[in-house]
Write a structure and sequence with these properties.
This protein is an alpha/beta fold and 207 residues long. Helices cover 39% and strands 16% of the residues. The relative contact order is 0.16.
Length: 207
């Protein structure tokens, strides 16, 4: 059952409509914990949750300041890569961390500044934290940025496979028109060097 991970901005219905056409069966809606209005979101989801036979689950995007409070409300806590990555992978409260490739650092001569390293991988493996790969930025019109991003993704895939870290592939998009067919994503990540078994697990496993 293919699924995607998205960050809706009052456009949940549009995501569901497009996801249905692409053959997705499950969507994870991630909300910023600091901005989350439980009553408002739950009422909205009640109206659309059975639409197009797509299963919906929700989780929170958190930071180092609100992680403890958020953990009392949900088991699905997600963070975007930052200078606090080691804290998060050691916390045992995070299910998923993504966005390593977006780190604003200059690449080294013989290595990409991909945001991920063997220390983070080892703690992620130990504490069952998945590494997320977001594909929606690949559709950026800046060719130089896209080329840089691809190189970093390939390096991080190699690291995750070397250290046997669980991986998750998702759009992590705020724009419904940036999600893609699972089969397009399979082809894309095959070219990035991820093996077939890991690709399938990264697209179908539950969070």
């Amino acid at each position: 059952m293919f699924r995607d991970i998205i960050i809706p901005k009052n456009n949940e219905a549009e995501f569901i409509e497009i996801a249905s056409k692409l053959g997705l069966k499950k969507l994870y809606f991630l909300y910023d914990f600091d901005d989350y209005n439980e009553d408002k979101i739950q009422k909205k989801l009640e109206l659309i949750k059975n639409h197009k036979n797509i299963n919906i689950e929700t989780g929170f995007i958190v930071n180092h300041k609100n992680i403890n409070k958020a953990s009392k409300h949900s088991k699905l806590l997600v963070v975007k890569s930052s200078d606090k990555d080691r804290f998060f992978v050691e916390s045992k409260k995070i299910r998923l961390i993504y966005g390593f490739e977006e780190i604003n650092k200059k690449d080294y001569l013989h290595q990409r500044a991909s945001g991920l390293n063997h220390v983070i991988c080892e703690f992620a493996k130990k504490n069952n934290v998945a590494i997320g790969f977001s594909y929606n930025l690949l559709f950026n019109k800046n060719d130089i940025f896209t080329s840089l991003l691809i190189g970093r993704i390939m390096q991080n895939i190699a690291l995750c496979q070397k250290y046997k870290v669980n991986t998750i592939i998702g759009s992590f998009s705020i724009d419904p028109f940036k999600i893609r067919s699972p089969f397009d994503i399979i082809s894309l990540f095959t070219t990035f060097g991820m093996n077939g078994k890991n690709i399938k697990e990264s697209l179908v496993c539950d969070l």
